Amino acid sequence: MEEIRILDLKESILADNDADADKLREELAAEKTVYINVMSSPGSGKTSTILRLVEQLRLSYKVGVLEADIDGDVDTKTMLDAGIPAIQLHTGGMCHLDADMSRQALREIGSQDLDIVILENVGNLVCPAEFDTGAQINLVILSVPEGDDKPLKYPLMFSKADVVVVNKIDAIEAFDFSPERFKQYVAERAPGAPVFTVSAATGEGIIALSEWIGERTREILEYID
């Protein structure tokens, strides 16, 4: 009986994407653009947090936003109404973006003319973490109502994080959420990743987060030089 051969397609696809993501980072370095991949579950406040963040960052940088969704364009309208360059990406049912999708979107928005491009990835705590988008910074947002145990339940997502943001901190009194416990769990998954507590509703903590991103942006751009 002939031996059964098994081809692990997922492993092959991920390896190909990882190589393409490294190539995209080289392309972004050549045009001196910093690409930030924002990941979270639906309802965590990605759009409102990004909006607050861009309000601060664009005081010093030219910033654009990519809005990725399975369908719809509500978030892009929000950005455009605020005067922020933005385009909508429809994934056709896919729950993530990969490096080549990112490349197409970056070309469309004109990343060569921007200092920072922020991707609001598809709302999901699983799929987006598996695919390297080519970003230099991975930012993960968790909202207080989701609970402080998510780094234990979704370890891959948090292990990919360069920075973690806890949103809706203004509502913490209504939920059993411990910032200290959460930071401990994050440290186990992503040692060294800073954790910022913010409220997109009130603006609390946004300046500190924007200052960190500004510092990382300068480090990346200086490294490129």
How would you portray this structure in words?
- By secondary structure, the chain is of the alpha/beta class.
- The chain has a single domain (12-224), classed as P-loop containing nucleotide triphosphate hydrolases (Rossmann fold).
- The chain has 9 helices and 7 strands; from the N terminus they run αβαβαβαβαβααβαβα.
- The chain has helices spanning 9-31, 46-57, 74-81, 99-109, 127-130, 150-153, 155-159, 179-189, 206-224; strands at 34-39, 63-69, 86-90, 116-120, 137-143, 163-167, 195-197.
- Strands 3-2-4-1-5-6-7 form a 7-stranded parallel beta sheet, sandwiched between helices.
- The chain is globular and about 45 Å long.
- The N and C termini lie far apart (60 Å).
- The mean pLDDT is 92.
